[in-house]
Specification:
heterotrimer; B: mainly alpha; 5 helices; about 75% helix; C: mainly alpha; Helix Hairpins
Chain lengths: ~180, ~140, ~130
Amino acid sequence: MTEFVDVALLALLAVTGLALLKLRNLFAVVILSGIYSLLSAGLFVTMDAPDVAFTESAVGLGVSTVLMLGALALVGHEEKKPTRPRVLPLAVVILTGAILLYGMADVPPFGDPNNPIHQHVTPRYLEEMPEEIEVPNVVSAVLASYRSYDTMGETTVIFAAGVGVLLLLAGRRRRGQDEEEPGE
Amino acid sequence: MTYNIILRIATKVLCPFILIFALYVQFHGDYGPGGGFQAGVILAAAFVLYALVYGLENCRRVLPPQVVYACMALGVLIYAGTGVVSVLLGADFLDYNVLAHGDPIHGQHRGIFWVELGVITTVFGTMVSIFYAIAGRKGLN
Amino acid sequence: MEFLVGHYNYWVVVFLMMLGFYVVISRTHMVKVLVGLSVFQTSVFIFYISLGKIRGGTAPILIDGPAVYSNPLTSVLILTAIVVSIATTALGLALVVRINEAYGTVDEEEIDAIERADEAAVLEAR
């Protein structure tokens, strides 16, 4: 049953992606990318990652859509018809995709408990965590305790991105003074 | 959107529940799905909803930008401060075992609590200030 | 056949990744490029979570009694990556807004044309 849901959601994701590629009205594109996030959140639930699904639906569907719509209101939402032919990008994408598919063939089969990824650090987390930290949610424990350096870095990245956005946008706009030529 | 009565009333009803839900996600994160990252985004979403319906100016009056900017930095400080406290108590940086005297597990719980508090503060501050920055920008025309 | 079915997730991941990549390198409206980038990112998230899934497993929230838990480590990595991805997307949007204020457009080809016209004008003035 889970497999069926999995297959269906992935197919829907692919269709949403194609629609997203085709559409020219960017309001529709942004809403579709929200739908894309929601579908991937559903996929994360079937793949036993409720924490990730939670984050994806809050971030991808909520905040990201609002920010994109806010930016679209400022920059205009009609995509122009391309003037150049797109043979080169297509060739690059097909080539890269072929290499990736070739590489993916060596990835161990989906859902096998003997995969290398499950052999190394994870068993220790799952076995020792109840005695060491006593927190039922292993994800929270690994995030905040075992890998707290990592999380501190991520928090700092978010802080830095926020500061960057404020530096770019929070000041008052000076018309005509910002248009300096980039030095060459 | 500002004069649509259904949206206004629905927002008024929903906002407190969203805020409570964010706190639930934050403090129940040890027992179920959730944690600082999600809670921060949900907390920010409550204010984004308020700003969308009642206007940015009113939202700025409820939650001044200076407070939000302070939150951004404060969260990272709380996080790093937890590490510094554990260093001062004689352990490694971000080693929570020493945070409660002689009880490593309790110490771990305290450490996780403070660290998650830092995460929610930074994520909330960043999300809201990014929203303020983009939504508060006037268009060219 | 079993090989094809067993890797189904990964095939779709590659498709989505290339779709996002194609949007990034072939479209000219910058907001659409950012949407393509987020499609790309989401496909990487799906790849990681697929790696961590164990068939018949359950979410890594400990319960009494024996159970098979899926890998919590991938969840942790992706959890933080998602929030970082929105932060970087917001930074990109901020840049797009500033570009729009400087050039009056966010279409890469038009910006190219403006730049080229500017350069030609500078050369002519000399």
